[in-house]
Amino acid sequence: MSEASSSILIVSISRDDRRDLFDVLDGGPYETILTARDYDQANALLDHGAEPTVAIVEFTGEGDQAKKLAQRLRERPEQLEGVLGLISGRARGDCYGWGVSVDGIDDWLRSPIDPMEVSYRLSKLGSADSEHAPAVATGSAAAGAAVEGHQILRLLNAVNCLDGDDALNSDALTAMAKHHHFEVFEILRERGGREAEPQLLVQLDKLPLGSSGDSLWNHQAYYDVLAGKTLVLADGAWESVRDVWLSRYRIRALIGLPLLNDDGKAVGALLAGSRQPLADWDGALEVCRNLAERYSLASLVHHYRIDSRFRGLHDSLTKLPNRLLFNDRLHSAIAEAQRNGELFAVLFVDLDRFKTINDSLGHAVGDQILVAVSKRLRASVRASDTVSRYAGDEFTLILRHIVQRDDVLRIAEKITRVLESPLTLSDGAEMQITASIGIAFFPEDSSDADGLIKCADVAMYSAKGMGRNTFRTFVALPEESHQQRLMLESKLRQAERNNELRVYYQPQVDSHSEDIIGMEALVRWEHPELGLISPGFFIPLAEETGLIIPIGEWVLRAACFDTVRWQKDFDIPLRISVNLSALQIKQPNLLEVVKNALADSGLAPETLDLEVTESINIKSIPNLIEVLSELRELGCNISIDDFGTGQSSLDYLKHFPADRIKIDQTFVRNIGIDPTDEAIVRATIDMAHNMHCQVIAEGVEIEDHLRFLRDNHCEEMQGFLFCRPLPAATFENLLTERARLLAGG
């Protein structure tokens, strides 16, 4: 990529693809990232002077509009380095892709977005003179290679991916390897993780291996691919990838592609390599991708029809994931939480006195109860959560992406209520079932899978000891709990002194235009050794120790200064929302703290929105109304956060007129799942409007949430559907993109 590169245009109907591409490109060599949700918006950007260096254009249907846009881009000034076509499920059949020539398109990307593939395709544009660029055949040699490559593809189409010993397979694959000069080519399918040797579906190795056990699958590159990583290196593989095997044999070109099942998990790998750069790199990559997809499909068929281990991942009675699949998902949840600094919970649900019911009424009735309970549990949580039948009458749940502990407690209470409702058996008789629920949190209670299950199990027995039909969270032994608390408190005090705290911003958007109108300031802790630590983990301790007061003041001031800078730079009346804890409201000098933050930053008071959680009640803070009234007289707005989850909703509205009400994400995430929560959301919106308050919904994650809230006249929204919380620099890039879009629209 040339140093003059400054802007890239992304055109995609898919919000997910636009967001994924933005995440991949953010912080890269492009000064500006422009996005357009359709071809009209893209053309409007060009009409208003946008001159992208590179464009990524999605092909949909027959691709006519995409081809017209690509041709128009070619008419732009000479700094255009290239246009990439993006293939999605909306393109008709396989009419576009590798090996297909379309006027104006230099190369192709596929959806879903693969970050390594994006980097590779972009690096190819303008790198024809690079010493590491793959050699490309020209003239008659190129024509001959194309004919031979076509014949190879036709041979491979006849390969039976379920039968690795077929002679036709061997001939076709050998010809392919010879044509592309692969010196090692293996396709492997897992049989039992690292403990068992994988099944070699294809093995064509020409390297002088040191011993029969010296196989590539024994080394790190294979395990990287098995973890879902794509390795695509035209040259310098042994220098770029940390792998003993690649270094030993000086592998320069490497293609490593995972074989994916229908859950997107790698169940095998395709590995191809050479000690020389590949002459026909695109052709080799096309062949490998096609083979990986075909062998992935074959692996699915193999698992469904032959492999009893795969069939054994779900409980035959309830159709829920069984213990094996639950454990796999729990490990995945831990890995994701460690990467993102998130909080999640494990619930252990045990039916009360089920053995007595089963023994007295028979197993047929017991089975009916288990099926009914499984349906009620599944309906009580989100689609992204896991519900499994762990054993007998025991169920386990994983609740992911938890913002605070209270969210889990509300879900546990909801499950308790749902399960105790009478259920009707097939003979018309009614039966009442209750359950005891234990709750463990990651990473507070344990940071490994076995530990979380044990903690949830201990908490479940604690619930049974409290009389059953209730829930309890895990509580460590007093000595352990005290030591953990002191250690975390010490680290948190150091975090404040060592500048380890960060302010992240989550956009708030207008429900109809989806334009950014404000943002919520959220504090994050980036520990130098532990990485990103969930606020649900450290904020409660900050409140208990009083550290929330200096932390809260620092967040307020940082948010005010950032907001003023963005208001000036982008000429937009952004509103900033900052949370106030109960301890901050009790501060005698809170009004002075807010005044100073506004005066020092120059922020207009009417653009500062101070959020007060509904769990703060008037009885616990006698001067609450007085303090909030003084803040409103200062010109600030007051919002009631987490509305609907506390006990004083009507008291709040009765005693003071809030400017805005935030509907808690617990209710929003159940839209489309729980009619009761949908009714609560409707009622909250209507009540707020009757009280002349605006409404903002948080936790908006899917299009169904957006449609429901928009149809019910909710003015503002925030959530992962639009954008995750972002560091200040990335949020500024988002505002830059917005300004470009408006200039073009």
Number of structurally distinct domains: 4
CATH class of the largest domain: Alpha Beta
Helical residue percent band:
40-55%
Q: What is the distance, rounded to the nearest whole angstrom, between the alpha carbons of the first and last residues?
A: 29 Å
Strand content: 15-25%
Q: Name the shape in a single word.
A: globular
CATH topology title of the largest domain: TIM Barrel
CATH superfamily of the largest domain: EAL domain
- What Rg is obtained from the alpha carbons, in whole angstroms? 29 Å
The total count of strands amounts to 27
Q: Which structural class matches the secondary elements?
A: alpha/beta
Tally of individual helices: 27
